[in-house]
Every structure is written in C-alpha cells, then in structure tokens.
Amino acid sequence: MGFTVPDDTVLVADGGLATELEARGADLSDPLWSARLLIEAPHEIEAVHRAFFAAGAQFATTASYQASFEGFSARGVDAGTAEALLQRSVHLARAATGGAGQRWVAASIGPYGAARVDSSEYVGRYGLSVAQLAAWHQRRLEVLASAGADLLALETVPDLDEAEALVGLVRAADVPAWLCYTIDGTATRAGQSLEEAFAVASGVPQIVAVGVNCCAPSDVLPAIEIARAVTGKPVIVYPNSGEHWTCGGWNGPARFSPTLVPAWIAAGARIVGGCCRVGPADIAGVAAAVHEQT
C-alpha cells in the first residue's frame, strides 16, 4: 500500500503553502488560490516546497487543495489539461525533495467547500449526500493518487459525511492517506463530535494517520487524545496560526508557537506541522522542538 508512519518517530509536516507564496509576492486573489500558480508560475510553488524542506519539514503538501476540474474549467482549461496540472502539483513537490530520503509528497485533497470559494469548508453540511460527495471527489482523487505521491492528504474536512465519502474512495483505490478535520473545540465545523468523526477511519488500513488541521492551536491537545482513543492510529496535527479569517483578511494575535510542540508529542502526536499563516521559520522551530523531544 505504500507509506506508513514509522514506529517511534515524530515527523515534521510543512506549513502554509499559500502563506509563503503570498509572502514572496504571489497574487492569490483568484478562485483557484495557490493552484493558479500551477498554470502561471509553477517554479514558485517548487521554490516554496524547497524552503519548507530546508526548514526541516519532511512532507511537501501539493498545491492541489483548491484545484478542481470545475475550477479549471471556469478558467477555460479543458479536462485533459486540468488533469495534467493536478499531476504537475505532485511532480513539483517530488522535484523539491531533491531525491533525499525521509522526504515525502502528500497530495492535497481539499474539501468540496474549498472549490466553492465561499468559505463553506468551515461550515460543512453542503446539502449533498455521501454518494454525491464521493462522485465529486472521485476523479481528482484518482488522478492525484496515480501521479506518484507517497500518500494523499485528506485535509480541512469539516463534516463526517465528506470524510465518509473520502475514506470510501481511499479504501477502494487502496492508497495511503491521512484524514484531518478542521474543528471548533471538540467538534467538527459541522458540529459533529470528534468521537463520531474519527470513528469513520477506524478499521480502515489505508488511513495511516488521523488528526486536525486549519484549527486554533488551542484545539489541538483535546483532539489528539480523542483521535488516539477512538482509532489507535498515529495522530497528525497542523493547526493554523491562531489568527481568524474575517472580512477577507486575518485578524487577531498569532498563537502558534514551537513551544506547544512538546505537549503535542507527549499527548501522542506523530506528525506535527502548521497550516495557514505558518511559514518556514515557524516550521524550523517545530523541527528543532521535535528533535529535542526525540
């Protein structure tokens, strides 16, 4: 089946790809978000992957989070070219590894709400059935799974219905993946308990890790404990900076800190990184904290 989380090792995930692209001057004010640069400036994506690896990350998460066949079509990109662009996201991440060992490519499978470009990935409950969600995700997932990634990153999932759809596809494709919910406290963004949400992955060997991402750092510790208790699987956490997205911008103080990492590891986290507003310098701090603990 491919990638598994190594025993007795804590791995370092990357940070916010879009955050670093914007810090380098990229304009992501587009429905495709960072996937826009798969068309216009793929070298910039590869450069950011390399920056995170240089900072100590061991995963490159591809620029496919907000990419979809519908989104590309709205830009006049035909289905064949869209497929090639999805594959390019994986190839750029692979090139950035430089062939070094202990570096992996995680192909990002963002939620349906991300492609709607209306922030509904932070709400869930789209009005679609599990079967309809699976049908929407299937082609993109299959393309990314066959493009040479080490595993799929099912990330920022707000709703257990969408998790059921994605887990079913991963099981059918027999490819390794991690499953990460975006949460508010100890519930999914759609309001389901994390006990119920993580149970979707129980007994599914293709799901090699479960956890949370794009959430407040303060929500991480309780989620680790629930994920371990429900699934017994390795836990992955990569919260955002703690700032809040409102009115088209980030507000409030940043609360992400490498000083939080030892407690996450002690609670059972096996892969640790960051999401929105977490850059290479932050990941360097995470990597240092991981190395001090292991």
Structure description:
Helix content is 43%, strand content 16%. It is an alpha/beta fold and 294 residues long. It has a single domain (11-293), classed as Homocysteine-binding-like domain (TIM Barrel), CATH 3.20.20. Helix 8 links the parallel strand 4 and strand 5 (177-181). Helix 3 (42-55) packs parallel to helix 5 (79-97). Pfam families: S-methyl_trans. GO terms for molecular function: S-adenosylmethionine-homocysteine S-methyltransferase activity; zinc ion binding. Zn(2+) binds at residues 214, 275-276.
Explain briefly what this protein structure is:
This protein has one domain: TIM Barrel, CATH 3.20.20.330.
Tell me the helix content.
Answer: 40-55%
CATH superfamily: Homocysteine-binding-like domain
Number of strands: 12
Radius of gyration, in angstroms, nearest whole number: 17 Å
Number of domains: 1
Biggest sheet descriptor: 8 strands, parallel
Separation, N- and C-terminal Cα atoms: 27 Å
Q: What's the pLDDT, averaged over the residues?
A: 94
Class of secondary structure makeup: alpha/beta
Series of H and E elements: EHHHEHHEHHEHEEEHEHEEEHEH
> Could you say what the CATH architecture is?
Alpha-Beta Barrel
Strand order of the largest sheet: 1-12-9-8-5-4-3-2
